[in-house]
Amino acid sequence: AMAELFCGIEGGASKSTCIIADANGNILGRSTGPATNHWLVGMEATLERCHTLVVEARKDAGLDDSVVLTSLGMSLSGADKKEAREELRDKYLEHHNDAAHVFVCTDTYGSLATGFPDGGIVLIAGTGSNCTLINSDGSQGNCGGWGHLFGDHGSAFSIALAAVQIVFEVEDRYCEDDFDITYARAAMFDYFKVECLKDMLPHMYKGFDKTFFAGFCLKIVEGAHQGDKLCVEVLRRAGRQLGRHVRGVYPSVEEAQKGHLRILCTGSVWKSWDLLKDGFFEIVGALPAKLTLMVQEETAAVGAALLGARDVGKTVAFKHETYCTLLFKSE
User: Fold this and answer.
1) Which of 53, 65, 229, 235 to pair with 3, CA 20 to 30 A apart?
2) Closest Cα to residue 36, out of 60, 62, 54?
3) Judging by beta carbons within 10 Å of its beta carbon (0-12, 13-18, 19+), is residue 133 exposed, middle or buried?
4) 150 and 256 in contact (C-beta within 8 Å)?
5) Is 175 helix (H, G, I), strand (E, B) or coil?
6) What is the C-alpha to C-alpha distance for residues 198 and 196, in angstroms, rounded to an integer?
7) pLDDT (tens digit, 9 = 90+) per residue, 241-293?
8) Residue 199: strand, helix, or coil
9) Going by C-beta distance under 8 Å and a sequence separation of 6 or more, which residues neighbour residue 212?
10) What DSSP element (H or E) covers 327?
């Protein structure tokens, strides 16, 4: 019999990753591609891009075209609704015959299955943000994940937006905060290639690109590292916002875990932990719990592959403990 192969996709709002593994958890092939969030790029492009990822990963693994994957798990940001997940699954199977089974879930699930396959809290802070709790009995809690208009607090997008708003408000003398905007304004003009505030309007309307806008977060991080007070404060506030997500799911944590929370931190905003942590602990420090924060180093495509395999009653012996590094542990 052919060796069983399991494929997984991590689909983000900026970039996506795909892996193919065998039952022993050896990763045989990988590929990367653009965003696969159907709210941002549409259903058709999402499916097209997912298929391209699979094709590229198969090529990387040196697979013959005749080989059918046992399962394909897709953990996609934006796939929160059952109808969307079913449509993605059904259309993939209808148009492509490279996988015998397709399983679709939202992005937090793939992350959690990568780092904490038996459950815990995952807090995504990338382009957008979201937080999911899964208890050992399968019960769940969620906070956030509502997109850039209603949520995404503590994400790269919200950090970029907060800094831009302060520049506008200080310029207008509307602001309560008395920030020196010299750095932030210059960084904004440079990043968005504008010469005055009015030139920013296309970035809010016709030329709006969430991923590009979120990228301005990097300039705020650079400013904070240089000691710019506005940037430091915006990131401290983002830390508080991330902390509020943990506080939001805390009441749903099972009794046995309430005293010690295991949190999986996913997304590039966590690279700035030194700038987030004071704000984060302002909120989370008030909870009657010890904390272990782990940063996910391996792609959530691993967890997606595991969930796809589980959905057909199989398992993959991934080495989960090697996919994370310790960020913080309570004394």
Assistant:
1) 53
2) 54
3) buried
4) no
5) coil
6) 6
7) 999 999 999 999 999 999 999 999 999 999 999 999 999 999 999 999 999 99
8) helix
9) none
10) strand 324-329
Alpha helix (H) residue ranges in 196-315: 201-204, 210-215, 217-225, 229-249, 273-284, 301-310
pLDDT tens-place string over residues 160-174: 999 999 999 999 999
> In the structure encoding, which two tokens stand for residue 62, read together?
């040196």
Mean local confidence (pLDDT), 123-128: 94
Is 175 exposed, middle or buried (CB count within 10 Å of its CB: 0-12, 13-18, 19+)? middle
What is the CB neighbour count within 10 angstroms for residue 68?
A: 13
Beta-strand runs (E) in 44-162: 71-76, 102-106, 120-125, 129-134, 140-144
- Band (3; pLDDT cuts 50, 70, 90): confident
Cα separation values, 120 from 175, 185, 324, Å? 40, 40, 14
Q: Quick: pLDDT tens for 53-66.
A: 999 999 999 999 89
> What is the bridge-based pairing of β-strands 260-266 and 120-125?
parallel
**Cα(243)–Cα(246) distance, rounded to whole angstroms?**
5
CB count within 10 Å of CB 329 equals: 11
